[in-house]
Amino acid sequence: MNEQGLSEKEIFSFLENAKSEDTDYYRVLSSMCTHPHKIAVEAHRLFIEANLGDLGLFAGACRLEQEVVRMLGELLHAPSIVVPSGGSCESSVCGYLTTGGTESNIQAVRGMKNLVTAGKKGFKGVPNIVIPESAHFSFDKVADMMGIEVRRASLDSEFRVDLSSVESLIDINTMGLVGIAGNTEFGQIDPIDKLSEIALENELFLHIDAAFGGFVIPFLEKPQPFDFKVPGVSSIAIDPHKMGLSTIPSGALLFRSPSFLDSLKVNTPYLTTKAQFTLTGTRSGASAAATCAVMKYLGNEGYRKNVHYCMQLTEKLVTEARKIGFEPLLEPVMNVVALKVPNPDLVREQLLERFGWNVSITRIPRALRLVLMPHNTLEDIELFVQDLKKVTAEI
Ligand code: PLP
């Protein structure tokens, strides 16, 4: 660090210089995040100092977090419960705001493990979970840190998890299953209703990673079942900082039953609250405010328009790509396209070097992976396909 402080002018010129190296999402077709909505940015600023790690000091921010959990519970069809006093509770959903899909996935599996080791099931040996091969790499972190075995089920020809493969991997030490509602590479949705049947038959937890799809699927014309309406679903990860248009970091983890959340509790002796069930200690109240504000501002109608726009971009991309002879690996389910092109790694490199397009590649099979987000335009798509044509013609 410098001995004496710099002037404001010097600092901001330094920052602007760094900022000029960012893409600002220009020609970005590889990201599942986007510009946060301006309402979210304003709300974020307003609560910039709020720490949800010490709830007693920030009762207002805490209330906003609860309101987000309530709204997300409603969006994801959390069931109602009747409380013993005879009063009826609007929703039994419980959960909290995380830093994103990674934390939500880690905590969901930690909850399974805690409930299992608390004696709810008789296990012999190392506990395991069964996830689809298409699962996000956050599950590699789960495998690394949780002392459990992560078993990967193969995919069917449509890049959904293969149910017979899932069944073949379940044994006495299996704690739970994971289904993906909007997988990272293909935007595909696993057969959650069938996974639910398997989970219920085998008395297993079922966690749904809807980090990306959670703010997409409910707003599609024909939504597939993926949320708490499906009886075996025990927890859901959904990220407001992706298609929810909130600020980073905004993730959320919801549980069907409060016992799940309870299993994550640790005592916090010197804070204003007695216990914490989150992974991180200090947490951003600004994210809670941002998410609350943007959800209330847009409402279902606003998110429906957002998804409709991204699906229009998706259709445009597929139509234009077909005109130059390239087919998608699967008909897009949501705003993610995996495009079959010759030599995708070289195409990706050339698109970036020559035209500044940021695209990514699926693992198996290798294809161009394109995510159509609110920061993209129909003109972008036309230009992109023209550039793709030039690049592939010369390879
Ligand atoms: N799950 C899915 C399906 C994702 O697509 C992603 C990120 O793209 C994650 C989890 C991880 O989310 P984050 O990067 O916010 O931790």
TrEMBL record:
InterPro entries: GrpII_AminoAcid_Decarb, MfnA, PyrdxlP-dep_de-COase, PyrdxlP-dep_Trfase, PyrdxlP-dep_Trfase_major, PyrdxlP-dep_Trfase_small. SUPFAM superfamilies: PLP-dependent transferases. It catalyses: L-tyrosine + H(+) = tyramine + CO2; L-aspartate + H(+) = beta-alanine + CO2. Its cofactor is pyridoxal 5'-phosphate. The modification N6-(pyridoxal phosphate)lysine is found at K242. Keywords: Decarboxylase, Lyase, Pyridoxal phosphate. It holds the Pfam family Pyridoxal_deC. One of its GO terms (molecular function) is pyridoxal phosphate binding. Its EC number is 4.1.1.11, 4.1.1.25. Pathway: Cofactor biosynthesis; methanofuran biosynthesis; Cofactor biosynthesis; coenzyme A biosynthesis. One of its GO terms (biological process) is coenzyme A biosynthetic process. It comes from the Archaea. NCBIfam families: tyr_de_CO2_Arch. Belongs to the group II decarboxylase family. Sphingosine-1-phosphate lyase subfamily. Belongs to the group II decarboxylase family. MfnA subfamily. Catalyzes the decarboxylation of L-tyrosine to produce tyramine for methanofuran biosynthesis. Can also catalyze the decarboxylation of L-aspartate to produce beta-alanine for coenzyme A (CoA) biosynthesis. This is Probable L-tyrosine/L-aspartate decarboxylase. It comes from Methanosarcina siciliae HI350. The lineage of its organism: Archaea, Methanobacteriati, Methanobacteriota, Stenosarchaea group, Methanomicrobia.
